[in-house]
């Protein structure tokens, strides 16, 4: 008789856990797309989050920004940043009944700064070391997350990047608003 009850208990557990995971509101993975604004330019950010608890997650973020530097009146040149960031985020404030979450996090960042379309000639007195190169540093981010439905939320990230070896604008601030889609 004990064997029968043990088998029924194991069978019940094997049936309940998949249904619980299948009918849960959110999964462990989400994808976000955020158009961003930066000084004298714009960009786009794509991020993937892996939630390993209800209060924190790991984020992989790709960002591309496009700007024009204006060192003198009437003179400008383009530069682009292509960035990869891997960070850890934790909840700092939450109101689950209202679907509102605030996260703070950051981590290392690497990328490539493409200056003046790859040209080394500038029509003004530029520093001689200002040329396209790989960059490295870190980033910190504050994210506001407003749930729209079980699958979508509105995110408003504020990202600050600092790259130690950048020849041009070693710090960058990105402001944006976009959508996050939760996978099951």
CATH fold-type name: Porin
Stretches where pLDDT falls below 50 for ≥5 residues? 19-24
Number of distinct beta strands: 9
Q: How large a portion of the residues is in β-strands, by DSSP E?
A: over 45%
Total helix count? Answer: 1
Rg on CA atoms, Å: 22 Å
Structural commentary:
There is one protein chain. The protein is 11% helix and 62% strand. The chain has 184 residues and is mostly beta strands. The protein has one domain: Porin (Beta Barrel), CATH 2.40.160. A hairpin with a 4-residue loop joins β2 and β3 (56-72). The model is unreliable at 19-24 (pLDDT under 50).
Provide a compact summary of the structure.
By secondary structure, the chain is mainly beta. 11% of the residues lie in helices and 62% in strands. The chain has one helix spanning 2-22, and strands spanning 29-38, 41-51, 56-72, 75-95, 100-115, 133-147, 152-163, 171-176, 178-183.
Features of this protein?
184 residues; Porin; 9 strands
Q: Topology, please?
A:
Blueprint (H helix, E strand, L loop, with lengths): L1 H21 L6 E10 L2 E11 L4 E17 L2 E21 L4 E16 L17 E15 L4 E12 L7 E6 L1 E6 L1
Antiparallel strand pairs: 1-2, 1-8, 1-9, 2-3, 3-4, 4-5, 5-6, 6-7, 7-8, 7-9
